């Protein structure tokens, strides 16, 4: 069965997305178009490039995650230096190693820019903080005076995965100025809306895979200190746009994968945790497909 797919963000919790994709592939589902934010953007890009679920599992299993963390080198080796750099560079890590990893893996399939894929087959989400709006790659690039066809997918992925304060934001040159771009999850962590037209019509079935519990399963937040308050504020802002769109009608087309207890920036994931995340993705997808 040919469908369109949308994958949510979630950082390192994205291993669960691979487990869900494995089940979908085994059951004979094929994606005509895919879209995603952050971790979901990575999975979507690999699927669009022609990777099988097994190949993606191998890629991620072989990945040395700490090698993607590339702090800027400084002459002064003071303990406080990274916080000084954070203030001026707006992120702890450059993100160049991450972008190169994307480039290498896509190049292995002969994919470099959006022109190497069928038109409209891949859409990635990032956040334009300068102008306060969502960027859909490659659709919105012409708005910035940039050629959509030749734009590197690895660069779009780097922007979509640019977790604020963790990775330095990307400065996209536009005319005589620059636009600050960060993780798509800031404005739309789950772009389930992306393949519907203005009338809400769709060309084929759209299946979403979301790294969270459904609204019915979602527990309330306990807020009793400043850290809890910040986490609740950021989470609410991050999900507000998507939650407004997702109704009970849309929930029947979404595989919800609960990943409570795991952090999006848990870069020291051990094999057991990776396997647990993938197993959760597989079990949730299997259960979902019994009635979809």
Describe the overall structure:
- This protein is α/β, with parallel strands linked by helices.
- The chain has 9 helices and 10 strands.
Give the gist of this structure.
The protein has about 290 residues and is of the alpha/beta class.
What is the alpha-carbon Rg in Å?
19 Å
Structural class of the helices, strands and pairings? alpha/beta
Number of helices: 9
Helix content: 25-40%
| Shape descriptor | globular
Beta strand count: 10
Would you spell out the secondary-structure blueprint of this structure?
Elements: E1 2-7, H1 15-26, E2 30-37, H2 39-49, H3 53-62, H4 81-89, E3 91-93, H5 96-107, E4 122-128, E5 133-137, H6 153-160, E6 165-167, E7 170-174, E8 177-183, E9 206-210, H7 226-245, H8 248-251, E10 254-256, H9 271-289
Parallel strand pairs: 1-2, 1-9, 2-4, 3-6, 9-10
Antiparallel strand pairs: 4-5, 4-8, 7-8
Which features characterize this protein?
292 residues; alpha/beta; 8-stranded mixed β-sheet; two-stranded parallel ribbon
